Inverse folding.
């Protein structure tokens, strides 16, 4: 048996104010587990995305998170091939409150947010994923230069290795940027 104190773990640079990875410290081989704190406006993920083989369950401990989810994949043997991000009009929003959970099957596009107003309540949640490896992970976000949703990738910022950016695969524009704030929490700066 392994035991860790969540607050003793490092904060990983992610789109949420706080993300602490528990799998390695706990010795998990087949399960990914992460602790999240989302300030108002924060997201669990860098972009609207799907996991090829990983099933995810998010358990909201406090606050209310809102997931934008696309259609469920039609072929469980080829979830990414049959997964469809869905046009924005085909997506639905699912609110998950304290002591509630949401399951995302492999291949279903999703992104969870804290949609509280500035100064509102944080979302605290646990994310569990199995298997631990998620396989292919297509990502999409709104590109301001293309003025449409496009595939994106995550990279270190070329002008500052301590920051992460998402980059549009269609035009090469920077879509979003995150950094570690002076208070040790992550923040989106673009």
């Amino acid at each position: 048996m392994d035991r860790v104190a969540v607050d003793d773990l490092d904060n990983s640079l992610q789109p949420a104010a706080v993300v602490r990875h528990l799998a390695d410290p706990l010795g998990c081989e087949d399960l990914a587990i992460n602790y999240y704190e989302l300030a108002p406006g924060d997201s669990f993920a860098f972009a609207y995305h799907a996991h090829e083989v990983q099933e995810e369950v998010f358990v909201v401990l406090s606050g209310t998170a809102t997931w934008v989810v696309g259609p469920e994949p039609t072929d469980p043997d080829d979830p990414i091939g049959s997964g469809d991000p869905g046009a924005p009009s085909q997506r639905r929003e699912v609110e998950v409150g304290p002591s509630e959970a949401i399951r995302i099957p492999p291949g279903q596009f999703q992104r969870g947010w804290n949609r509280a107003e500035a100064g509102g309540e944080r979302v605290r949640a646990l994310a569990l994923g199995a298997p631990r490896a998620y396989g292919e992970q297509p990502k999409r976000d709104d590109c301001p230069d293309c003025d449409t949703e496009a595939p994106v990738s995550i990279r270190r910022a070329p002008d500052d290795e301590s920051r992460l950016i998402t980059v549009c695969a269609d035009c090469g524009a920077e879509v979003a940027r995150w950094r570690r704030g002076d208070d040790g929490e992550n923040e989106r700066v673009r």
